[in-house]
Amino acid sequence: VADLVALSLNHFELRRRDKEVETYQALTKEVQERENIDLITKFFAECLAMIMQADATMIFSCDPVHRQLWVTHAFQPPSGFEGLRLDYREGAAGMVADHGHTLIINNYAEYPGREEAFEEDQPFTHLIAEPVLCEDDLVAVLQVVRQNAQQPFSDHDENLIHQMSSWYGMVLEQHEIQQRLDMLKVYRRTLQ
Questions:
Q1: Which residues contact 42 (CB under 8 A, 6 or more apart)?
Q2: Strands 103-105 and 56-63: what pairing?
């Protein structure tokens, strides 16, 4: 009986990983077919939720000069989190922006630095936030949340969001390079 249970658990884990790979492949194809970074980021937020088996994802853009971050894209965000604006060190995303390290919180209700928007209806239990770097500069923070108290984030989830963050950072770098090339082309045409 124990062997059958173990085989069943392995089967479900393999199916989950297959789903992760399929979603990642769809995301890669989407990026190759689209040039609009806004649409790519919106699709990325949705895929990140599916891959991480999350209830919601939020992507914060960072302004290191003014030490602020704000939600630019989200997939099924809890109420009060759309357009949320934070200072560095405020909320989990603000702490990640300030320190540049992954943060996993498995009981957000007890986290002393939580966002004020959380206080009203406490929309989630578990949270993982990850910095996004472009050329070693912090440009964004990914925040993923789960409501199910029985499904905390694991080491596998931490590795997964780190990989997704690295991939998203490369997409942003590629987009920035393409914008610079387009500007140079326009400048070149004006000189001719």
A1: 73
A2: unpaired
| Tens-digit pLDDT profile for residues 66-80 | 999 999 999 998 877
The helix/strand/coil state of 139 is strand
SS3 category, 140: strand
Structure confidence by residue, pLDDT tens digits, 48-67: 998 899 999 999 999 999 99
What does the block give as tokens for 160?
A: 């997964």
The 3-state DSSP class for residue 159 equals helix
Which run of H or E residues covers position 182? helix 155-191
Look up the pTM and report it.
0.77
- Rounded to whole angstroms, the Cα distance separating 184 from 139 reads 23
75 touches 81 (CB < 8 A): no
SS3 136: coil
CB-based burial label for 93 (10 Å; 0-12, 13-18, 19+): buried
* Tokens 């770098």 found at: 173
Predicted local confidence at residue 190, as pLDDT: 84
Buried-state track 112-136, b at ≥16 Cβ within 10 A, e below 16: eebbebbeeeebbbbbbbbbbbbee
The angle subtended at Cα 45 by Cα 35 and Cα 42, nearest 5°, is 40
